[in-house]
Amino acid sequence: LVAIAIDLGYDDFDLAPVKALCDELSVEFYVVKTDIGRISLEKSKNQASPCSWCAKLRKGALNDFALSVGCNKIAYAHHMDDIIETMFLSLLYEGQFYSFAPVTQLDGSGLTIIRPLMYVSESDVKGFKNKYNLPVCKNPCPYDGHTRREYVKQLVRQLNMENPGVKKRLFSAIQNGNIDDWVKCTKPSDAS
């Protein structure tokens, strides 16, 4: 088990608190230095934001480094809210019903992506972080908080306030929506 962080090249990205936690837990911690922030901004000059470029480059850097240190699985911290927001982003901006799958096999690389927090709400993740005083590093990206994902996050929050329980129903729609990558995965019997 190792922890890997991708440094996008911003000057004020301080990972010292995460390194300290990993040291305390005796988990190897790697920081992969990149220029992804600068590259994404350059490649997206004619787009609303560099987010899609950045995500692709980050995943590539993470996958390559994980393979270089002998990993065969990568656990993303995507939680239930992330999955719902991704579905809304797909509906609104791509015209399709899709969200990333619980498990993804990356063809040819031998890597498997897992999302072990997919049944956990963002509020529960934050509660756990607060209860155990876990470190969170500030995202130095100039687009942080000003993205389509943030817009969708607020939209889902508003929908859930006006229609209590709508987030759980949206998540259920994803599970039952015959999305190709989801059909292969089964819902745990104790999930609510």
Fold and architecture overview:
By secondary structure, the protein is α/β, with parallel strands linked by helices. It has a single domain, classed as HUPs (Rossmann fold, 3-Layer(aba) Sandwich), CATH 3.40.50.620. The chain has eight helices and five strands; from the N terminus they run βαβααβαββαααα. The protein has helices at 16-24, 36-43, 51-68, 80-94, 122-131, 148-162, 166-175, 180-183; strands at residues 2-7, 28-33, 73-75, 103-106, 111-114. It has a three-stranded mixed sheet with strand order 3-5-4. Strands 1-2 form a two-stranded parallel sheet. The mean pLDDT is 90.
Topology summary:
Layout: E1 2-7, H1 16-24, E2 28-33, H2 36-43, H3 51-68, E3 73-75, H4 80-94, E4 103-106, E5 111-114, H5 122-131, H6 148-162, H7 166-175, H8 180-183
Parallel strand pairs: 1-2, 3-5
Antiparallel strand pairs: 4-5
